[in-house]
Design brief:
Layout: H1 2-16, E1 21-22, H2 24-34, H3 45-50, E2 63-64, H4 66-73, H5 78-91, H6 107-110, H7 132-141, H8 146-167, E3 179-182, H9 189-203, E4 210-214, H10 216-219, H11 226-238, E5 241-245, H12 260-273, E6 278-284, H13 286-294, H14 297-302, E7 305-308, H15 314-327, E8 331-332, H16 336-347, H17 356-375, E9 387-388
Parallel strand pairs: 1-2, 3-6, 3-7, 4-5, 5-6, 8-9
Helix pairs in contact: 1-2, 2-5, 7-9, 8-9, 11-12, 15-16, 15-17
């Protein structure tokens, strides 16, 4: 269904630009990208892209605003979508395009090569607005991930070394921009991948920090011959930039007629043909990703750098939980932080433990419990919505009966003792 596709694409855009909410401008961009070959829509793509600036700093999953939900609910056809696109762009105040050849700060996150207008004598891309040090500072500010940060720094150091050698007329070693991120869900793989895209741009390894996140459904079609076209289209829209393939192991062929093999072959060819303006980061569980890389000799020779994302420790999850609280403008009452860390200590051994996702869900449940407590007397005062109490921090398995689900804890799992 069109509205569902546009909703997913709008969320992807908000995540790529690190915005904390899915706003109408993200829907506009999703529409413009979806119908960019439409003569009526093509001239609006640049305005829709410009409306996404400036890039944000959010690291959590963006949620749609009420306005966004309303716009998507009204889209049932191509005409509805185009009308919504025009309406949003008319409401948005977007910066005027800079004079030809002038530096533009709007290019750092969303610069893309338009195949219809690119020419051989096109000018060199502008220097990035942010430096490698700027982005590394954001990387360092993330909770935990010590080994990951060290490996990312190593990758970037090689890129910088090669760039300096090239400037000096010396031969450079292939920097190997393609990466494999391994680890369980909720360990920051997508967040770090976005930062890597910006590091590649800031270091000069790539001319843009465009970031496209896909999974098997975005690459594989249902009919013979269509998967290669679908995958190639995703690559075309990503270049120059980083293509992040989440749960990439799902592409590993399970039988001879599995179209995942066609998607992999297309990716491998693109990694070779566009080595100067495309980096692929494949992510997923460790063992499955090893099988994925071994499934194709081309992958084996190009995906050589593995970065493992370990589970967060209970104390680190406590810091992440506290960050969610701070970002919401709340405070933790006496014993609330200790209650949260106690839950994290008991949850880390679960097979389906979601790391930072678990911390976010715990925060959302605590917030809902605070709101319910504030509404019990029929009058909600803002003062009642400023502090999470220890009793608010109790885990309930989402969507399942409370009495039967304490994430493997006993009936006192929510207690400090």
């Amino acid at each position: 269904m069109l509205r569902l596709h546009l909703g997913d694409a709008a969320t992807a855009a908000a995540k790529a630009w690190a915005h904390d909410a899915v706003e109408p401008r993200h829907v506009a961009y999703a529409i413009a990208r979806h119908f960019e070959d439409d003569p009526e829509v093509a001239p609006l793509l640049q305005r829709a892209r410009a409306a996404l600036e400036p890039r944000g700093n959010a690291v959590s999953v963006p949620r749609p605003t009420d306005a966004t939900t309303g716009i998507l609910a009204g889209i049932a056809s191509r005409d509805d979508a185009v009308e919504a696109l025009r309406s949003v762009l008319d409401d948005e105040v977007t910066p005027a395009a800079p004079p030809s050849g002038a530096p533009s700060g709007m290019q750092a996150q969303s610069e893309e090569v338009d195949a219809a207008t690119a020419t051989d004598d096109e000018t060199e891309p502008d220097e990035p607005d942010e430096t490698v040090a700027d982005v590394l500072a954001e990387l360092d500010a993330l909770v935990g991930l010590g080994s990951v940060k060290q490996q990312v720094r190593s990758v970037v150091a090689v890129v910088q070394a090669n760039r300096e050698r090239e400037r000096a007329g010396l031969p450079a070693v292939n920097p190997g921009l393609h990466l494999v991120f391994t680890g369980p869900p909720g360990t920051g793989k997508t967040t770090v991948a976005r930062l890597v895209a910006r590091l590649y741009r800031a270091s000069g390894a790539l001319p843009s920090s465009t970031f496209t996140e896909v999974d098997r459904a975005d690459l594989v079609a249902g009919y013979v011959g269509q998967t290669a076209l679908k995958t190639a289209d995703v690559i075309r829209k990503t270049r120059p930039g980083v293509l992040f393939v989440d749960e990439a192991y799902a592409l590993t062929p399970s039988h001879p007629s599995d179209f995942g093999a066609e998607a992999i072959a297309t990716l491998v060819k693109a990694m070779e043909d566009h080595r100067d303006d495309l980096a692929v980061i494949a992510a997923g569980y460790g063992q499955e990703m090893s099988e994925f890389v071994e499934s194709n000799p081309g992958l084996r020779s190009r995906l050589k750098t593995f970065i493992d994302f370990p589970d967060y420790a209970p104390g680190e999850l406590g810091l992440i939980f506290a960050k969610f609280v701070e970002e919401a403008g709340l405070s933790l009452g006496e014993g609330a932080a200790e209650r949260a860390e106690s839950l994290f200590s008991r949850a880390v051994d679960r097979e389906d433990f979601g790391n930072a996702r678990f911390a976010r869900t715990l925060f959302e449940q605590a917030y809902a419990r605070m709101a319910l407590r504030a509404a019990e007397d029929g009058v909600v005062e803002v003062e009642e919505l400023m502090e999470l109490l220890a009793d608010d921090v109790t885990w309930v398995e989402p969507g399942i009966d409370v009495a039967r689900n304490r994430i493997g804890f006993d009936s006192g799992a929510g207690d400090d003792g």
